[in-house]
Amino acid sequence: MSRPPKPTYKTTNWPAYNQALKQRGSLTVWFDPSMQWDALPSGRRGRQRAYSDAAIQACLTLKVLLGLPLRQATGFMASLLELSGLGWSVPDFSTLSRRQKTLDVTIPFRGSKGALHLLIDSTGIKVEGEGEWHTRKHGGSKRRVWRKIHLGIDEQTLEIRAVEVTSSNVGDAPMLPDLLAQIPTDEEIATVTADGAYDTRACHDAIAARGAAAIIPPRRNARPWKPDTTGARARNEILRASKHLGRALWRNWSGYHRRSRVETKVNCVKLLGQRLMSRDFDRQVAEVQIRVAVLNRFTALGIPTTVAIG
Q1: pTM of the full predicted structure?
Q2: H or E element: which one contains 59?
Q3: Per-residue pLDDT band at 132 (split at 50, 70, 90)
Q4: pLDDT on residue 129
Q5: What is the crossing angle of helices 260-271 and 281-301, to 10°?
Q6: CA quadruple 95, 100, 102, 108: dihedral sign
């Protein structure tokens, strides 16, 4: 069976998308005077926090977005607040570092119209070690530390809806149930699309438990599973369809190729820095979550609308 022809696409909202791309580079910083900058009393004994989580996240957002060290981030924020005339004080670098470890990052998203189509992928990001050119030229050091970022994005809005950070020795498939758990239970999930690494019983069962359809290509040497669960039966149907249609035609028929959008989003995460600046794992998690919040705000400015032609 011959491969289906590759479609070509045309962007239909180029003027609006072009304007959104320019807005991503705007240096305008808006401060809401009604924002809760100072922390509210906790009601517990001991010294109270001076700054709210929103204030800490605002400072760390500028730090991550501009790639600044902690001290430079505090100086930059102090200059912005002075220009704004709000009279707010700025957390010092030690406060930012301490609060980052336990910060509950708020990740904004708009949500899609209708059921959610979730696209899953993961990537590695460097923590310690030389760059790729230095490693190829002189050889890498013995200590090269990586973290894995697991993402789930909304296929319609291209916003990141779920994120997990693990060590490099954690596989992709075990994290899919945790990603699905970040989607509210009252939100309908229509499909979950992922690559063949997620072709496991645990993944299919977790997807079936949310009432969603799995779009996961079976492995080339795949065999039918014992149909004792809903996920196993759904996976057997995928295996039967891929063998009947052929892998290339099944991918085109099922819409599997839209998973490339999450691969593009993975690249966007790394455009904010090829490595994490934090050294503590909990702070690294917060740093990645702040990157996600930044990218979702960029995405909310505008995304391309494409249609297939030809």
Answers
A1: 0.89
A2: helix 53-66
A3: low
A4: 62
A5: 110
A6: positive
**Strand intervals (E) in 206-278:** 213-215
Residue with tokens 């304007």: 19
Instruction: Point out which residues pair with 124 in neighbouring strands.
Output: 148
Closest to 173 measured CA to CA, from 235, 115, 223 = 235
285 pLDDT band, cuts 50/70/90, is very high
pLDDT higher at 274 or 206: 206
Select from 1, 65, 45 the least CA-distant residue to 247: 1
Residue 134 — pLDDT band, cuts 50, 70, 90?
low
Q: Which amino acid is at 19?
A: Q
The phi and psi torsions of 221 (rounded to 5 degrees) equal -100, 25
In angstroms and rounded to an integer, the radius of gyration of the C-alpha atoms of the chain is 22
Please give the Cα distance from 127 to 5 (Å, whole number). Answer: 42
